[in-house]
UniProtKB/TrEMBL annotation:
Top-level taxon: Bacteria
Biological processes per GO annotation: DNA-templated transcription elongation
UniProt xrefs under SUPFAM superfamilies: N-utilization substance G protein NusG, N-terminal domain (SSF82679)
Protein name per UniProt: Transcription termination/antitermination factor NusG
Residue ranges occupied by any NusG-like N-terminal domain in the UniProt entry: 17-116
């Protein structure tokens, strides 16, 4: 019997645990990812397909990290133990904090990280990754996607290049996915 290949969306699970955003000061993303995996921690690196031409002029469709200096780690340890693990790393890394003058780590809520990971699906081509500063400059209303393939997701409805996008922001990076504005309804504010 033919074994079915697991889809990206089936691998993304929301288990209720928040995530850390870890910044690298080198380009050794794979080494940092392996370090955390060897210590039993789950990581996430936003990836996208990129077309690259080899020396012979042949085009290759490869999966590559969106940014080379950011990795997300699921919180399964105390902050003290995680801080010790970061300190003991052979690579220079730091965990994003709540503010510039705070030493407390910023924890990305599980539901926000779940939606972000879903939006980072490399199979979906019509999306843009932007910096947190760029995301803050974009005007948009909070919405809930009621219909279509992004049904159930929340974010801000923004316009870019005469198209509408659902913008999801987390520390360090933001993603915008093409969406029809007719699929969105205003998010109820508490």
């Amino acid at each position: 019997m033919k074994q079915m290949q697991k889809r990206y969306v089936d691998e993304i699970v929301d288990d209720g645990k928040p995530w850390y955003a870890v910044r690298l000061f080198s380009t050794k993303l794979e080494e940092v990812e392996n370090y955390f995996k060897e210590n039993g921690l789950e990581s996430f690196i936003p990836m996208q397909y990129v077309d690259e031409e080899d020396a012979k002029g042949k085009l290759h469709h490869r999966l590559k990290p969106v940014v080379r200096n950011l990795i997300f780690i699921k919180q399964t340890l105390s902050d003290k133990d995680f801080k010790s693990m970061v300190f003991n790393s052979n690579q220079k890394i730091s965990v994003l904090t709540k503010s510039d003058d705070s030493r407390s780590f910023y924890l990305i809520p599980h539901d926000q990280m779940y939606e972000f990971r879903l939006m980072c699906n490399p199979e979906i081509a019509i999306k843009k990754f932007i910096s947190t500063d760029e995301a803050k400059m974009k005007a948009g209303d909070p919405v809930y996607v009621k219909f279509g393939p992004l049904k159930g997701m929340r974010g801000r409805l923004v316009r870019s290049s005469k198209k509408y996008y659902l913008l999801s922001e987390i520390p360090g990076i933001s993603v915008m996915m093409k969406v029809s504005r007719w699929c969105c309804v205003p998010e109820k504010q508490d």
